[in-house]
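Memo to structure team: turn this sequence into structure tokens by end of day. - J.P.
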Amino acid sequence: MTKPIHVDATPQKRLFLSIIADYDLKTSVCELVDNALDHWTVGGRIGALKIEVFLSPDRQLVTVKDNAGGVPQDQIQLLIAPGASRDDISTEMIGNFGVGGKRAGVALGELVEVYTRTADGSGHKFQIDNDWLRSDDWSMDLSESVDIEPGETKIVISKLRQGFSHQEIQEIYAHLSETYANFLSNRCSILLNGTPLDRIKFDSWAYPEDHLPISGKTTLFPESENAVNVRITGGLISDRAPKENNYGVYFYCNSRLILAHEKSHHVGFLTGHAGVPHPDASLCRVIVEITGLPSLMPWNSSKSGMNWSHPVFLEIRERVFSTATRFSKLSRRLKNDRETVVYPFTQGRIEPFDFQNSKTGKEIVALPLPRARAKKYAQRILDDNEATFVKKPWSRGIVEAIAVADTVLRGRTLTKTRIAFLLLDSAFEISLKEYLVHQKKKYFSDEDISKLFKSRKKVLDEIKGLTSVTQGEIDLAQHYASLRNKMVHERATVDILGADIESYRNVVQNVTKKLFKVKLDS
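Reply from structure team:
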């Protein structure tokens, strides 16, 4: 038997440089904030946590400081060695791979200085620079330091590999405010250049009665003993911002935002499901919240996106698809009614929903879509005639008058028949004038129009000679014109009965359809 060959598998320092390609300023700063949050969690979250991020465009300097308790000397390896991570991993933690903070620092700059001091006052300092990265020696020289307060850790990164501007600071402020919104409280504050982060969340739902947001939860066991809890909430939103495209699917893992406004085919935005991304669907939002051991989270290694082939995501994929499909279709259906049936409803309840279980996540099951509420007659005839209004803008007045009269008649006003009657008659007279002015068979001067409209009978006679309006319709129109004159110009009080207004409305609608080719079907 041959003797086994011994191979030295000690990693080389270039390992650091080979794993930083997917890091930028945002992801690097977030990794350093994650480390502070995890250190606070491991310490039992005793006391209020304060994380301070300083970005100096003028000095091209990045500093992250926290008061999470400091790192004792026997644990400093966690801050240096790739793959070194805590044994006491909990479901509230964000870090797991043991490389994020290290490579984030190296990705940002050529010089990384780390200061840490425990609550009892024992402090140390070390640095990672090009000399250390080029050597084969993995040991690290520590020096004592009391340049920070007890219980603090500070990381200072300089000689940046890529610079940043004042504009980028504003972008990072918004990014951090969104990413850590669920952590910010009176017990956890994060500041950027001295300014506390805003708490930017995405749960601004709209609560229209027939289209309430829904929420369901499930528990998965990707490993036999360890559970992953998932909650999916979907609905129409009240904070639509067209320029920001703030719709789609949002993923949180252990309370940290991982991916926002995702609208790819991975989450159902494709033909046959939620449809391709389009402003018509911009009221749709789905929030996916996943909690469990960090090793079971379906994020990528830099926590800047999702791993779409991860078993946990595949288990919930159909639920994400079906929820996005449901509210995308609702958004498209209600695109013309947002101001009246969506935006006003900013308070309400989230309806519990029992998501269908799936073992594989491969079968996409559409959630039942609530029935659309039928449009009222007034809105329907306005929508149906939009194209006509473009070609014949003078027809809009009579159609809108008919719509308003219908709305008045459906109300509870005691004199509603009189109001509707006067409205219809006034608009009808104007519409007759508009027709005579715009028709091509016979020309009417301003003087002709002025003389003609002193008598409704003469007007109706002209209309009859130019159109297919019947004598019966002319007679009824003349009858109700006389009734209007009695009501307005004579001493006697004239009551407008329900049968009168119904008959006159039919006359006005029939004549209007013949004059302007509008759609007024009931």
